Amino acid sequence: MSAYDLEGLRREKDQFLRQHPHSPLTQEQQDVFSGLSYYEPNPTLDLMVAVEPVDDQREIMIDTTTGEKRTYTRMGRFSFDVDGQEAALTIYESDFGYFLPFVDASAGTETYPAGRYLEPDELPDGRFHVDFNLAYNPFCAYNPGWSCPITPAENRLSVAITAGEKNPTGDWVEHG
Fold first, then answer.
1. Which residue, among 174, 171, 176, has the nearest Cα to 32 in the 3D structure?
2. Predicted confidence (pLDDT) per residue in 60-89, tens digit
3. What is the pTM of this model?
4. SS3 of residue 92 by DSSP
5. Which of 7, 29, 110, 161 could cross-link with 172 by S-S, CB 3.0 to 4.6 Å?
6. Residue 175: which pLDDT band, with cuts at 50, 70 and 90?
7. Which residue from 46, 99, 50 is spatially nearest to 74, judged by alpha carbons?
């Protein structure tokens, strides 16, 4: 995705959070919302990856931040390079499509401690488009009243993914 298109998507998300009735922000938060923080576009983390099916393609229950459980299927795993270091993540599938939660080395400092999410796109040739520039915080990062899946241990990375949304900051952020 071009930097221009990415900036447009980011502006649209800020507008949604600031004005839309389905925003995860309370009215009080929307009134003082100052926008989200992002890394600069990072074309090296816009990837087309081959996903290897996992041997254990079974349904798993993933806990949420409010103690609920959600069902996902372990679909496949892919490896990629980040600044000369190898990393690997698992893609999950649900009734809503593909889901890629991850926690990286920036979590708790530059990014949301519980991790970020992506919805990778399956390509016609069977590979997946995984653009970390589109990595976003779950709604519970903005408002603790939301229930968000907790990233499974197999998707916790020791490398930093310097792309996508950063930790929310400002007077509008609620802390639970």
1. 171
2. 999 999 999 999 999 999 999 999 999 999
3. 0.92
4. strand
5. 29
6. low
7. 99
